[in-house]
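Listing S7. Sequence submitted for prediction.
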Amino acid sequence: MEPEQDWCLNCGAAAPGRLGERPGWRAASTVIALALLLVLGAVGAGYAALTDDSQPKQTASAPAAAPPAAAQVAPPAATTQPPAATTQPPATATTPAKPKPLPKVKTPTAGATPGAPITPTPTTSTPATNTGTGTGTGTGTTGTGTGTNTGTTGTGTTTTPADTAPKPIELNGDAGTVYDPFKRVKDSGETTRALDGDPSTSWYVDPTVPTQVAVGYVVDLGKLQGVRQINLQTPTPGFRVEVYATDETTPPPDILDTRWSHIKDVSDVGAKDDGKQKIVLGAGTSKYRNVLLWFTQPPTDGPRLRIAELELLG
């Protein structure tokens, strides 16, 4: 070492007699010793802490490790327990459900508020009968027995269907006149006899040309009316008639006048029903004032043509 050098730079040894001369060596030694003690205490505390932490982990890991072992051993137990759990729910479900008390509730609640569904029961509607009085004997809730019973069945209004059949048209006694535009009438009887309602009397006409009558009988309806049917009765059947009608107040002077409406033709009048003939004209929707029977062929037994009864229906 060099003069005045306190420490060896290679080995770190102090020069002889230098340590005792240093006034701070003891203090430094004390500090170092205390520092070592503190370090040792810290190390010991740390070690203790580590050991404490390791032990809980081992205990915690032990239960954690235990479940797998228990899981390995307990699978059968776990499988057996679920059925027990499944059996328990039905037992608990049956306990709160208690459907048996419900019929008991229906019986006492006949007069209670919740007995509304019981009110429409057939037991109350069965004894209900029509209004009336009666006597009889019987037993049972339904009341079976024999006896007499009189009661009111009730009254109601029944609507009768409207009569759609044709109805006779009221005519004046002088409503019928001879229609002779071609002057073919040789002789003629009273026109009122065809409308008097007496089959024993009749209107007749003798034409100038026996094979072709060309004479008519016109009826004034008094107002515009629909004609649906003509009923005719004759003692001289077999003639031919054509039916015309007009809405004019006065009949047109010629059968060929366009104001006449041709409605229907009928041959062999009265030949099939003892002189009676029904001529259906239609629904009667068209309104007419005058109706004409135009005779074109004579009867089977001769030229004279008779009309005993004539009725128009609307």
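Caption to Listing S7: primary sequence and predicted structure tokens for the chain studied. Residues 25-73 form the longest helix (49 residues). The chain has a mean pLDDT of 75.
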